[in-house]
Amino acid sequence: MIEAQDLPQPDRVEGAPHPRETMRLRGQAEAEAAFLEAYTSGRLHHAWLLTGPRGVGKATLAWRIARFLLTTEEGNGGGLFGDVPPAPTSLDPPDAHPALQRLLAIAEPRLFLLRRAWDSDKERLKSVITVDEVRKLKRFFELSAADGGRRVVIVDAADEMNTNAANALLKLLEEPPSDCVMLLVSHQPSALLPTIRSRCRTLRCRTLSPEDMAAAITAAAGEVHADPVMLAELSGGSVGEALRLLKLDGGKLYGHLVSILGEMPGMDRQRAIALAETAAGRGAEARFDLLIRLVTMMLARLARTGAVGPPPEAAPGEAETLARLCTGPEAARGWAELEQELSDRMRHGQAVNLDPAALILDTMLRINDRAARLAAG
């Protein structure tokens, strides 16, 4: 029996603090400013859709907004001598507000967190947000706030709602309770019901620059990484993905891939076998999944080189290797076709439990064959 405090949290990236524990947000100043402008101008919408790639800080932004809304006194002309409190200039909450500790413990009665629930029978997290969880949200709305003030709902992530849950949430969005703000985190907003999207104002979160990535990694992992450009390139500007790369030594793994690619079309088969075998065996599932993603990314970067030139280097010697193997638009098309073919093949092989080492080795042999054909003209 797992104790409540030990249950996994579906909205937390492994190896990083929960978004509610992250006080500073890096790289999303534009999104913060857009929300603050709506608030200070009296145009605060009842529902907001926070979009952007996974891991760039959408949930952290949602919790920053929630803290702001639940700790900020609304200007009503009731200040000392009847003066109106000055408009806030940031989403930073007051340092000593009593709601801060309640929010940190998810014990604030004016906040509702809608996320995947724990299945006590199967002792694992449910794969989707079900309609039962949305019904709890409906009951939350039916209760009066303890002090009659604003209430906030965070949905993390809206993409994880099943059909019944999405339809139930839509009804609440169509007839929103008074003085309530709903914050929907979404990694793939195009997959949501169009009617849900149309009832929300969008806040777009961008991918992080290398500088912002370095600061965010230091804050999340408590360490300074020596190569923020590599992390930004391989993670797609996502802090969550960068943390996974660090945990699995993804930078070193990508360096091995680029080194083998640099030998093509005369690939050292033994080096390829050694790389493939690191993805096999019990406990190597995460590394296998990462290796698939890195191979796919390497091929995409090859194709991009032929079209617009090499991207910033994510491994030593990468730019030279990419430029040699992809010399122009025709080669770029060939690599792009291979990227799609091998990506589909590797994901299918993973889904049907093909031998990981054999799958990776075959993939590297196919890449070497394409390099040979392109070199021959």
What this model shows, in words?
The protein has helices spanning 29-40, 58-71, 99-104, 131-142, 163-174, 194-198, 210-221, 228-235, 239-247, 250-263, 269-277, 285-308, 318-325, 329-351, 356-376, and strands spanning 47-51, 111-114, 118-119, 124-125, 151-156, 180-186, 201-204. It is an alpha/beta fold. It folds into 2 domains: 4-204, P-loop containing nucleotide triphosphate hydrolases (Rossmann fold, 3-Layer(aba) Sandwich); 248-376. Helix 4 runs parallel beside helix 5, helix 8 packs across helix 9 and helix 11 runs antiparallel to helix 15 (356-376).
Keywords:
5-stranded parallel sheet; alpha/beta; Rossmann fold; 15 helices; 377 residues; elongated; disordered N terminus; two-stranded antiparallel sheet; 2 domains
In short:
This protein is α/β, with parallel strands linked by helices and 377 residues long.
The level of helicity is 40-55%
> What is the strand content?
5-15%
Give the strand order, joined by hyphens, for the main sheet. Answer: 2-5-6-1-7
Name of the CATH architecture of the largest domain: 3-Layer(aba) Sandwich
From N to C, what is the helix and strand string? HEHHEEEHEHEHEHHHHHHHHH
Radius of gyration: 24 Å
Question: How many domains make up the coordinates?
Answer: 2
The top-level CATH class of the largest domain is: Alpha Beta
Determine the structural class based on helices, strands and strand pairing.
alpha/beta
Instruction: Note the gap between the termini.
Output: 63 Å
User: Which outline best applies?
Assistant: elongated
What's the rounded overall pLDDT mean? 89
Q: Specify the CATH homologous superfamily of the largest domain.
A: P-loop containing nucleotide triphosphate hydrolases
The unreliable regions are 1-5, 76-81
Please tally the β strands and state the result: 7
CATH topology of the largest domain: Rossmann fold
